[in-house]
Amino acid sequence: MWKKLVFVAAIISILPVAQSVWADPFGFFGITTVVEQDYFEDVGTNFVRGNLRLGKVYSFLDDTWDFSHIDTKHSDIRARGAEVMLTFFSPEKMEKIRSGHYQDFILRSVERYDGDADYGCSQSPPDCYEPGDGQYPPWAENERPAVKTWQMENEVDAANSYWRQNPLGYAELVNLVYPLVKQACPDCNVMLGSFLLSDQTDGFYPTFFGESDKFDAFDLHLFDTRNEDHFADCTDKISFVRQQNPLLPIWMTETSTYTDTPQRGDGSSWPYQSELDQAVEVVKRYVHLGYLNLEKILWGFLKEGPDGAADGFFWYTGLIYDGQGQYDRGNDVKKLSYFTYKLMVEKLGDADWDNITSVSSGDNVYQYLFMKDGAPAYVVWYDWFNDTVVPKQVTLDVSHIRTGLVRITKAIPSFETGEEADTVPFEEAFESYRLPITNGTVVIYLDREPVFIEECGGCICDLNNDGICDEQDLIMFGGSHGWGDLDCNEPGVECLCDLVRDDNSTCDGQDSIAFLEAYYRPECRLAVYIERLKPKPCVPGDKIRIIGSGFGSGISGEGTPAEIKGVVHVGPKQFKYGHPKIKLWTDNKIKLKIPKDKYTKNSCAWFNGEDSRTVKVWVTVGGLNSNKQTLKVMKPQTCP
User: Fold this and answer.
1) Among 411, 475, 551, 619, which is most exposed with the fewest C-beta within 10 angstroms?
2) What is the total count of domains within the chain?
């Protein structure tokens, strides 16, 4: 399946590639759905692509200009903190492109929306271009749109494109528009119109590239089903572009796939795709295309819109339904892909997208390594197209991870539809669990969903998975290691939890982190954290609380000295103490009294200057013998 991809990727890898100026590739095509909804902020990205047509701002009939409705739209986008790129849609007649009106259109648009205070006006406010036109922009300084990327047409090599049949005309347009944009905004980027590259042998390409090199970036579009070949084809196209100019930044300002079974133009249907299928593609496209050094990857759309033929491909590519079409689930109903996109931005938004590493896993398993704030994060999936064995057990190299545990998070919510996923809090929609690392590897079952694999970090101490490292995690650990149920708030017990020795006598998150990180990190040997937990040497007058199982509420009271004999367990090690004496101190009086029918709490003891976690003992007090018991011996403390 990927043989072609691997070969072409090898070609690409030897070509120098420009480093991206963008922090991440995320964004959307389609301004309208972004302006009308709050979802843009919620999903966590701030880049959007729109378009600008000469006929929308200039009337050939009246010879007048009106940018007011465009101003309003861009003000709304600016208010949402979004960055915008705009695509020029030009008349498909060369005589109109050569006219002064078209050149004014380019200059006035760029001057008006490039972010500085020069709007290209020749009149005083409130007018701009002609006396009485009222076209001076109404923005305050912090409200001005700042469009820094301008594109020259859309899908110029499509079969039905005017430019496909006129490559020399498109070269003339590019050679005209590029210097006009730079004149109005020297620091703006000027991008070629998007390409499909459906047939790289077509004469359009050598003709155009032979006549123009006036562009700062290239744009590819990818629309397809979830099939096993489109990444190989896309990689082939990227190789083609980089053979023209190895340093040319490449964007993908439109990519998407659909849900359900949209209609084709010939009346047939596209193959059925579930919400899960679409969500899987969201992750795979961003991660793999990011690995191929695409600077920006814009999904079309955030919310669906009636784009193209009714019930067609583009009616169902959004991450949110719009209430239109026979397969629609209702206006504003989110798909699984919405939650997946949001999680992906959360996991990878601050990662280093310029230096993604492909980790060779083989057997249709694909693993990519990101670095985020100095910490590794893997994205892994299994291409199961021709395999009926799902889930698949694999052993993954996670040697960049420094902790003894990894956190696995499935990239798709654990529901069949986004409508169901929206009934629970976002963080509860995804299955997440921890696995141990063995010799730099982790064994995992890969299903249809991609997964994120990260350093466990906080989850080393967050054993109860409530997002907080606190005494409850230490209690949980103690319960699973034979310490019994402990109440860290009970007087005299909090000192057990106070492992950091910050003398605050409080079991808090730092104590849990100190202990549990030491316990789970493989480089920490047992003796290291035993020594770390070992209390200060006991001296007469120090108190160690003893809690005994089988003694009712414990050992307490006044009486005579007692002896403990048996084995002291500290982790896997055993220390035989023979018959050390425990001296029970109550106001410095060595007394012990154990009534036959009732025992009380809050005894104190000094155990031979040593501390332990579990002591299996026989207790002898005078002639009274108990059965074999298990005692908990705590840190030195002040008795109540």
Assistant:
1) 551
2) 4
